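Appendix B, record 7
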Amino acid sequence: MMSANLQRWVQGAVVSRLPQAFRLGKMPYLFVFEVLIILVAFGFAPIDPNPQTAMSSIFLGLAVIVHLVLTSRGMPLSQTTHLTCLICLGPLLHMVWFSGGVWSPRLTWLLVLPVIPFYIISPRAGYVWLGVVFAAQIGVAVCTAQGWLFPAQLSDEAQFNYAFATFSMATVMLLFVPLVYDQQHRSTLREGRLRQKELEKKQAELEQAQEMREHFIASVSHELRTPMNAILGFNSLLIKRVPHNPRAFEILEHTRQSADHLMTVINDVLDYSQFLTGRLTAHAETFALRDTVQHAFDLFAPRVKSMDLAYRCEIDADVPEWASTDRHRLMQILVNLLGNALKFTHQGQVLLRVQTDPGGVLFSVEDTGIGIALEDQPRIFQRFIQAQGEIQKRYGGTGLGLAITQSLVALLQGEIGFDSTPGQGSRFWFRLPLTAQTAPQPLKLQARKERQTAGQAWQFLVVDDHHLNRLLVQQILKTAWPESRVVEAENGVQALDFWRAQRFDLVLMDMLMPVMDGVQTTQAIRQSFTSQGLAPVIGLTANVNPQELERFKDAGLSVLLLKPFDPVKLCDEVEALLLRGAPLAPPSLAA
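Structure tokens (predicted):
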């Protein structure tokens, strides 16, 4: 504590008053060291018993003063140091010449000379000057041996006193620099430790902020997926009831496509969070490539009808009918690029073209819009680039679309690029390594088959805190199993009351609910299987957090479906469990 207080006092009372060039790093120590040399040089001049060398001491002190002045005025430190050492070498040799050569105690001052560049500039500079001093000492020895030097005309007592003072002061000077630099090292070490603690604290804050951001994004995604589940579910039920009404069917189909597009936007937000944490994944499947491209193109057809714009899609004849990659990711890429093109194009055309090339399949979206400014083109794929300029104010958007698109293309092992001329339009393209695949077995025929369990009076328990979600599941179950009875519960406590009161053949359980959530409720149901039988439990949730999903499955689920779910898929899973006689199957995730 004393050392720290003393250091703060020195910093405030001494260092702050030094010239600007001597306030940082090791410069305060250099200033003190050179002032000490000046005081010694001027102090020794009056008491020097040899009149020939007294003026050399004064000249030495003046040389160090010149070094301080030049350094304070901005001259590079390395230059002033070498120049000062060179100037000091002269008076030091002059003093040795007139005071006995190798027998002179003044020869000791030559040892101080390499110390200054060693600590001020670099060890290499110190070694150079050590070589210079060593050569000078050899020269002095030769001159002394040849008798070329002036003999020292001093008494033994004067010689003794001056020699003692010289060796003592030289020793102090040589010890001063290592002690000062040791103190500087300790100070730097303390500062480094404090800095490390600050960085560790900052890292903890960033990790906490990242965790809160992920939790926020997951919560928003859940809140958006929950109503989308009802929208898509009821839309699917209505489509099945209006097959003979073309106009109603068309409207519902547009509604479904718009809802699908909204789900893509919701997934973009979630994908961005996963992209930041390195958890973005792709799941390959075999799908109809042409239909998928056309589907993405048709999503924007209603918007284009009100625009003076030629909106075209061209798919070359040699493009594979079936391909294998992540269909959802491909849809996201196409929707992002088409949405951008339409946003910035008010007249002319937007063309989506798909063609084969040696690298696979080449997709391109060409428009005649405003184009991209030349200064923005090198950073167009950076995050939030759009949100930083006038473009965002005029056209809206978050600036995430192209950054996410680039990440998705890389995830699918492809490459992306663009060409743009300001004022004339842009062409964004991406290439995926797709090859022709064999068509998979049709699944729709199986979905349309009459269900084997449709005529039985099953007992279902639907647990969900949202009324529309309960209504949707009830409508799906009653449509597939008309004789069944569906009991609804809005939280886990109410579900357990119904569970204890009667036997159910199957439970459909939401995850996030007030009072008691789906995880706790499922665990309680599993613990009471001895009295009620082991009824299967299907988890239905809009939560997409991997850790939470694993916790839900481990509670004892038979199957887990993510909202919004496919009604046909839900009915397939329900019937499969009913046909098994309610054995507990290994948990699985069906998206």
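Remarks on this record: Residues 60 and 466 are 91 Å apart (CA to CA). Residues 2-154 form one domain.
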